[in-house]
Specification:
Elements lengths: L11 E4 L9 H16 L3 E4 L13 H12 L23 H13 L3 E4 L3 H13 L15 H9 L5 E4 L6 E6 L3 E6 L7 E4 L7 H11 L4 E5 L5 H12 L5 E5 L2 E3 L4 E2 L11 H7 L3 H9 L14 H7 L10 E2 L2 H14 L2 H14 L3 H7 L6 H12 L7 H11 L16 H21 L5 H12 L3 H13 L7 H5 L4 H14 L1
Parallel strand pairs: 1-2, 8-9, 10-12
Antiparallel strand pairs: 3-4, 4-7, 5-6, 10-11
């Protein structure tokens, strides 16, 4: 499908979450592509809260959506916090009168009707259809029923739902922004469907039509799991005699191991954006990563700023195939962004995670009571900036180095070296550090290491590996001189004594 939207003006899109849960990766994908679409075409992005499923709404569900969208760098032009009087309100529960007006219009025109079938009757109907090998569908039993029948049902205390009547053998079709031409036949859509529940609340497929129409939405981008809803919504548009917007159905995110849609059962994958934040993923990296879940630009480049993604976004390059969640790719992307951070900025971000205390690691760091937590964090960031792929790993290092005397170190690693030579290196290092301590001289650990080499005649890996094990617990620590600045001199001496004793 060619990109014919560039010639259009007044593009209006919407992200319309339900507060029945927190912002998860699939929500964020939908929000992000609507955001890119709106910004690329200099259009308007609307945030609308679809909260009619009151029983399933969760406390702080709406706050989670808004706060985490802001964290990702996704903003909007209209919404509950930015009302445009022409289109407000932006909560569906505040728009009931608007929906009922259009329900009455369809009833008056005979395009919708009251259905008094009880749940028991509908269950029996579905069971009979299954036994007969028929696809489940509403059989239209209340379509065309007399007013006397309706009064009799109401006398029994029955409250009707409202159903939209579908014409037979009618095709509902659209040219999808992503998938191309899509068509459904009315005979295969499950029969006349409910547009207003018996409690007076509109159903999703009716309310969104009214909202999108009254809010002048021009383009609807949403997950591929909504594609079966689209013909029903087009049926509502046609019944109301109004033009439907452009539709685009975004590929869903799949687990690469199971080859199935990502779900809450995928325990190895974090589900919610707040979890990524608390683990120390950068918002810019998550934004960049999600943009590639269902879309790709021309070329091989993979790291883009938000402004670059807005400029490059092209709906014709949206994928029809499933998007697979690649954890290693996310970690690589995040690591690339971390490498580019200014050290002070990186430190601020780590300390923000600590201050928020939303993870066990953050709480552990809070409990360390370091005199100069910022200075210590800055030094750890300097050492490990090029090695970590999550900021939580910086917090792990802070905890490790602060509690180094209580951490388990496998001194068996030292057995691969000559024992007498290794002990001489450790003792010489201890002596050099003690001299500095006694004389009150500033610590230059590069000079200390060189002095130890001269004193013992040991060089290279036989010099550095024992020191690495003694001070970090691992053989490879290329910035050992920087790491040593994390310790008080007494801690250095204690670690050397411990290593010597364990040899």
């Amino acid at each position: 499908m060619s990109d014919n939207l560039k010639s259009r003006r007044n593009v209006r899109v919407r992200y319309a979450p339900s507060p029945t849960g927190f912002l998860h990766i699939g929500n964020a994908q939908s929000a992000l592509f609507n955001y890119l679409f709106a910004r690329h075409y200099n259009g308007t992005m609307v945030l609308r809260i679809e909260d009619t499923d009151v029983k399933r709404n969760v406390p702080h569900g709406e706050d989670s959506q808004i706060d985490n969208l802001h964290w990702l760098g996704i903003d909007w032009d209209e919404g509950p916090d930015k009302p445009n009087p022409k289109y407000a309100p932006y909560h569906q529960t505040e728009r009931q009168d608007l929906y009922h007006k259009y329900i009455m219009q369809l009833l008056d025109q005979g395009l919708a009707y009251k259905d008094y079938a009880t749940e028991d009757e509908l269950t029996e109907m579905r069971e009979t259809q299954r036994e007969n090998g028929d696809a489940p569908h509403y059989d239209g039993r209340w379509y065309g029923r007399s007013e006397a029948d309706q009064l009799e049902a109401e006398a029994k205390g029955l409250k009707p739902s409202i159903r939209l009547h579908l014409p037979e053998n009618h095709v509902y079709a659209w040219d999808d922004i992503i998938k191309g031409h899509v068509a459904f036949n009315s005979d295969n859509m499950g029969g006349d469907f409910i547009i207003e529940k018996s409690n007076g609340m509109p159903t999703y497929n009716f309310a969104v039509v009214v909202d999108d129409y009254l809010m002048d939405i021009t383009d609807v981008l949403r997950g591929d799991d909504h594609i079966a809803n689209t013909p029903k919504q087009i049926a509502v548009y046609e019944a109301l005699g109004i033009e439907h917007p452009n539709f685009g159905h975004i590929t869903l995110i799949y687990n690469p191991k199971t080859r199935k849609k990502l779900s809450k059962r995928d325990k190895e994958t974090l589900q919610f954006i707040s979890q990524y934040k608390n683990q120390g993923y950068l918002s810019e990296a998550i934004f960049n990563f999600i943009a590639f879940l269902g879309w790709s630009p021309v070329g091989e480049k993979e790291i883009f700023s938000r402004d670059e993604l807005i400029k490059l976004y092209d709906p014709t390059r949206m994928s029809k195939s499933p998007a697979y969640f690649d954890q290693s790719k996310l970690d690589w992307t995040n690591a690339e962004y971390i490498k580019k951070l200014d050290l002070d900025d990186m430190t601020d971000r780590v300390l923000e995670l600590v201050s928020e205390g939303q993870s066990d690691l953050a709480k552990q760091v809070q409990g360390l009571q370091l005199l100069d937590l910022r200075g210590f964090t800055w030094q750890v960031c300097k050492i490990y900036q090029s090695e970590v792929h999550q900021l939580s790993q910086i917090m792990e290092k802070i905890v490790w180095y602060t509690n180094i005397l209580n951490e388990h170190i496998d001194y068996n690693q030292l057995n691969r070296f000559d024992r007498d030579e290794t002990v001489s290196v450790l003792r010489s290092f201890r002596n050099q550090v003690q001299v500095l301590q006694n004389e009150g001289v500033a610590r230059d650990f590069n000079q200390v290491i060189q002095a130890v080499s001269i004193d013992t005649g040991v060089k290279g890996r036989n010099l550095y590996f024992p020191l690495n094990v003694a001070f970090t617990g691992v053989q490879s620590a290329p910035q050992i001189d920087e790491i040593l600045h994390l310790y008080a001199t007494n801690t250095i001496i204690a670690l050397l004594n411990k290593a010597i004793t364990e040899m």
